[in-house]
Amino acid sequence: MDLTKINLIHYAIPGFILLILVELIFSAIQKRELYETRDTISSLAMGIGNVITGLVSKSLVLLCFFAAYEFRLFTLGWTWQIWVLGFFAEDFCYYWFHRLSHSIGWFWASHVVHHSSTRYNLSTALRQTWTGNFTGAFVFWIWMPWLGFHPLMVMTLQSISLLYQFWIHTEAVQILPAPVEFIFNTPSHHRVHHGSDLKYLDKNHAGILIIWDRIFGTFKKEEERPTYGLTKNLETNNPVRIAFITWTQLIAKAIRSGSFKKGIGYFIHPPGWSHDGTTKTAAEMKADFNRLNPHSPIH
């Protein structure tokens, strides 16, 4: 099976490039300096690498989905009602995948790539992992084909989600009408997600619908303009280093920890966890802040 025929992202690439050019022109007219040349080149290189690695990794994912589908509980079919149900199911899966990618070192090592830019523009949307599918991110969706959603439907819905998320990576769009902001993930909500400010950390994990964050307590409204990037930035524009530097750091820390149990901790605990307390997780940093500022705590 030719996976490119069901991957809507490939067909959307010319549109991505066109919209990036439009935003570049907007940035120049407004004198906003939304783009920086080396950062943008890195983002585009990461996007190209994601497409190339995806030719293999997404084929493997599709095989796993079909394997699960062989043992399906139901055959749900292709009616519009099943598409609607599948949309909500896929978006729910994405929320939990995304949320746990911020709280489990193993998944963060791939997802960190997307947060590694200190700029926030449409090219940042293309800054994607090369390793995610190879390290098992697809397990968050495997229940869907097992339940009875056809694998091609699942992968199409995943592509629709990624297509939607492209346009929200911009500072050119501010606040949208209240009903839209309440239901959908918007540029304002996603700017919060890309912020490295303590109060913005681990918020707004939505794919298309922000309702999951509202339901599960991870929603944060945009206040002042976020500081984009990581709490400790990677300090490189080399796409190969961006793709693998966190993996090499985790492995090195695990080896130096002195025991198997401590070493595994770097892969199962949240980013920033350390066996000796030399670095801290977002939750630990917030706890420290709240102890010092009991009258203005952050959550």
Give an overview in words:
With 299 residues, the chain is an all-alpha fold. It has one domain (3-216). It is built from 12 helices and no strands. It has helices at residues 8-30, 37-69, 80-101, 105-111, 143-147, 151-167, 178-183, 187-193, 211-216, 239-256, 260-268, 282-292. It is globular.
Main sheet specs:
none
CA radius of gyration: 20 Å
Low-confidence stretches at least 5 residues in length (pLDDT < 50)? 1-5
The span between the termini is 47 Å
Q: How many discrete domains?
A: 1
**Helical residue percent?**
40-55%
Shape annotation: globular
Strand content: under 5%
Q: Strand pairing plus helix content: what structural class? A: mainly alpha
- Counted beta strands: 0
Average pLDDT across residues? 95
Order of helices and strands: HHHHHHHHHHHH
Count of helical regions: 12
Main traits of this protein?
globular; mainly alpha; 55% helix; 12 helices; 299 residues; disordered N terminus
In short:
This protein has about 300 residues and is mostly helical.
Question: Topology of this structure?
Answer:
Elements lengths: L7 H23 L6 H33 L10 H22 L3 H7 L31 H5 L3 H17 L10 H6 L3 H7 L17 H6 L22 H18 L3 H9 L13 H11 L7
Helix pairs in contact: 1-6, 2-10, 3-6, 4-10, 10-11
